[in-house]
Amino acid sequence: MSADGETRIRCADEADAAVIARVHMASRAATMPYLPAQKRGHEQVTRWVREVLLRQCRVWVAVRDDEITGYAALDGDMLEHLYLRPDIRRRGVGTLLLDEVRRHSPEGVSLHVFRQNTDARAFYERHGFTVLDTDDGARNMENLPDMTLRWTPNTTR
Q1: Cβ count within 10 A of residue 10
Q2: pLDDT digits (tens, 9 = 90+) for 62-115
Q3: CA 102 to CA 95: how far, in whole Å?
Q4: How far is residue 103's CA from residue 116's CA, in Å, rounded to a whole number?
Q5: Which of 65, 68, 52 is nearest to 12 (CA)?
Q6: d(Cα 26, Cα 153) in Å, to the nearest integer?
């Protein structure tokens, strides 16, 4: 298991909802300070995870020493979310989650990323994603400029 300090990836379930919500909220607050302040509390985000995210997406969690350290959510071939606990960034956990997503997306994966999120953009570009388009923010609820990135198999990783 993960008692030896190794990170493993497994499918998420309803029992993980509260921890996924905590990871989601902490990651957004730490890595995207340009976002408007979170208006929803932990209970509301947990309800969203349980009632929307886990029902609409395939969701995986990264687990180390029996603690969830990150999650990824895939809807069809669209990576909707990939978030890590802020203290676990740059340790390979995001790559493990992304590799799991790509295993389940044999035709490729797309995602949206805020243009301001330079760390995420660099991460995805290192993993072979390329820019498909840019948008002025009209398509996201934050109304911030974003871009669509795409990875297809047999491209550089």
Answers
A1: 14
A2: 999 889 999 999 999 999 999 999 988 888 899 999 999 999 998 999 999 999
A3: 10
A4: 28
A5: 68
A6: 32
Query: In the numeric block, which tokens belong to residue 45?
Result: 């985000």
Q: What is the DSSP string of the chain?
A: --TTS-EEEEE--GGGHHHHHHHHHHHHHHH-TTSPPP-S-HHHHHHHIIIIIHHHSEEEEEEETTEEEEEEEEETTEEEEEEE-GGGTTSSHHHHHHHHHHHT-TT-EEEEEETT-HHHHHHHHHTT-EEEEEE-STTSTT---EEEEEE-TTS--
Domain regions of the chain by residue span: 7-151
Euclidean distance between CA atoms 146 and 143, whole angstroms = 9
Are 109 and 99 a contacting pair, CB within 8 Å? no
7-151 has CATH 3.40.630.30 classification: yes
d(CA 37, CA 31): 13
